[in-house]
Model the fold of this input.
Amino acid sequence: MVSIWMIIVVVIYLFVIGYLGFRGYKGTNSATDYMLGGRKVHPYVMAMSYGATFISTSAIIGFGGAAAVFGMSLLWLPFLNIFLGIFVAFWLFGGRTRRMGLRLDAHTFPELLGRRFQSRFIQGAAAVIIFMFIPMYASAVLTGAAKYLSHQFAIHYTTALFIFAVIIALYVVMGGIKGVMYTDALQATIMLVGLSLLLFFTYHRLGGITEAHQLLTDMADKVPAKLQAAGHQGWTAMPKFGSQLWWVSVSTITMGVGIGVLAQPQLAVRYMTVKSGKELNRAIPVGGVFILLTAGVAYIVGALSNVFFDQTAGKISIVMAAGDVEKIIPMYLQQATPEWFSILFMLTLMSAAMSTLSSQFHIMGTSLGRDLVEESLNIKKKGHGVLATRVGVLAGILISVYLSYTIDIRFGKTGTAIVARGTAIFFGLCAGAFLPIYIGALWSRAITRAGAIAGMLSGAASSLLWMIFIQEKPSTALLICDKWFGTRSLAVSLIDGKEVFAHSGPIIWAFVDPILISLPIAFLLTILVSLVTKKIPAQHLARCMGQTK
Amino acid sequence: MLGIEDPWVVAPYILCILSALLCVVWGIIKWNKDEKTPEAEEEVQHWAEEEDRVEEEL
Done:
């Protein structure tokens, strides 16, 4: 239902976003301004922007819905997000990345890797990986947001898609990273308020923290037989060890996303936007609390929605939503919270989508404009630094919008299924391709250029192959395995008309996340190739890492 | 504990809160600490000069 209040609030919101984007535009005079905010971004803005970029609408709606199905065992993910994704990331990765970025005058994540290993190829290949695969991730977020808005405002999907994309395009193209980060900080603040209130409402409605959890624990016998057979043991218990649900929850959701975050280029570049290590230290508490009150809340509320629906309708969440995981959180909001809150929450979800998208568009632009065209292909023209990146941003936006537009119209459900895997595919790919060489770049003097290239390419390839042919969810969605081999995954076979999953001991291969395969392969190849190839000159290493103590 | 029986689920619930607290305490303790060495200062100086030079060239 569209109310006059809803329209007023959205118009005010868009004006403020517009103003912040304009401030970003006014403060952008150089390539460093456009790509790194002049390396002088405030720690609050940096931490909130990092958090808001990381937590998209799908993290709230998709993962919140997943928590309604899996239960609170998914809380291992927000724990990893806070501990690894914020604390370890800012403390260990952040400081080194910032200093190395400064020493090498790197403006982007691929540029940092490329200059560290003295290889234009690495910079170009990293940029190609980002530019080829991030549109899928962006398109996943964009499609979700456009669908939500078209439903909220009763407008056509295509109209919602174009309006939304144009607004974001304006402040990303014009304002660069400053526009992105200022608006991110505002959007993160709205997300923080919206989700904190949602947690309060939920616990209050269900009689308190312990009481609410106890009610959920007592519902264990209501788990549907199908889920029980897959290993579900109740919403406040871990799935049975080695079961299908255990593998999905532990390997794909918790480890895939929890570890994968360390090598996300659009997040890593943010360490280079602050002035000193002091700012990184100050950003840690902001980021930690932000993730707790956004991701943590979405999971707790998602799981507890079962109690609410059981009390009000006598059904568990997934049954209420007729099997559509993505519908659980919106339905819960509609039925369990006051009307004014749904307006605030609409802003929360819009903010979550816009903040993630703006950074995705920005990194597409820097990858294409700066890394590929300017640096890797060495096509430079005076004064074209920012322009090339702006053109890159625009190209990235057009590709993502085109994907979101055609997928809905031309491919229907098949297309939607592919896009829905976009986030996971990008995370898996980045972890395999970038994590080993990123760690090597920051801490090891022994990794050679050839070793880094071998690690990056083998990580990307093994990740991609695993997702195309083995891991059940993406391989089913991508359809390539089915077309070539007539099965939705090489680890699934049909025996007497029944699907059987290949396994070795407790390992069910079709549910193993690519990160568990590609990381060991990439680490091993990086080390082995580095042992037998030409070392990087000591002088360059001293420049990258500072003088040896 | 907290209405949750499985220790493997209570653990992440508490760890989420503890790790956020760790972040807060870390931030407070290190609020004014920096890796400020003469070398770091020099780097900033060097970078600023380089940036000015590039801008001027453009």
